[in-house]
Amino acid sequence: MIFKVHKCMFIILVNSLLVSITFSDVIRLGKCPFVRLQRGFKHILFVGDWYEVARNPIMLFSNTKCNKVNFKKDEDKYNFRSSLVFKNFKKEIIFDAFAYSPYANEPAKMKIEYPLTLLKTNISFPYWVLYTDYDYAIMWSCAEYLKILHFEYFWIFSRKPYISEEKLRDLSDVLTLSNIDTSFMVRTEQTGCM
Q1: Within-domain flag for 192
Q2: Is 124 domain-assigned?
Q3: Using an 8 Å Cβ cutoff, are 82 and 94 in contact?
Q4: Do the Cβ atoms of 153 and 24 come closer than 8 Å?
Q5: Domain-located, residue 193
Q6: What CATH code is carried by the domain that includes residue 72?
Q7: Which of 104, 126, 153, 181 places its Cα 20 to 30 Å from the Cα of 33?
Q8: Residues 67, 30: contact at Cβ < 8 Å?
Q9: What is the chain written as a DSSP string?
Q10: pTM for the whole thing?
Q11: What is the total count of domains within the chain?
Q12: What is the pLDDT of residues 73-108, one digit of tens each?
């Protein structure tokens, strides 16, 4: 009986790791690193459209363009709408979720929660604000597995679909100062969008 339980746990662990590897190309040993968050972050100033201009490589989104998010205030929470276009299908896909800060004293530590209606559950992940002047933003997320591995994600957003190379370098420097590797950063295509 013990063997069956351990074997089942091992299979679940391997499957979880395989799913995570599918979604992230940035796998590191150890726990998630400490990062500095945006001080004095104000959710209400973050409301509106944000265009993804760059990110680390994420296999699932490698063939996408027109990636955009929208934050909208709705009573005590924020609606989070993410949209993108898979280049092969040329059709916009929209994901709706909720954004909230579980810690009142750390408003930049947001969580995004996606309802999985068919499974009658929700999935959530950290979505932390490393930097914003409310025209540009750097978001970061990290997921740990057994404190042995972690998967890091970052996104650079702008209120406009395009930013200059100089501004992108400045924003990349913010990531570098947080010990986040930008050497594999990819630009997000924002042409031919709906």
Answers
A1: no
A2: yes
A3: yes
A4: yes
A5: no
A6: 2.40.128.20
A7: 104
A8: no
A9: -HHHHHHHHHHHHHHHHHHHHHH-S-EEESSPPP-PPPTT--HHHH-EEEEEEEE---GGGTTEEEEEEEEEEETTEEEEEEEEEETTTTEEEEEEEEEE-S-TT-TTEEEEEEEEGGGTEEEEEEEEEEEE-SSEEEEEEEEEETTTEEEEEEEEEESSS---HHHHHHHHHHHHHTT---TT-EEPP-SS--
A10: 0.84
A11: 1
A12: 987 789 999 999 998 888 899 999 999 999 989 999
User: Whole-number mean pLDDT of the chain?
Assistant: 86
- Contact yes or no for 156/168 (Cβ under 8 A): yes
| Residue 183, domain extent | 2-187
- Please give the Cα distance from 149 to 142 (Å, whole number): 10
Cα-trace Rg, the chain: 18
Q: Is residue 194 part of a domain?
A: no
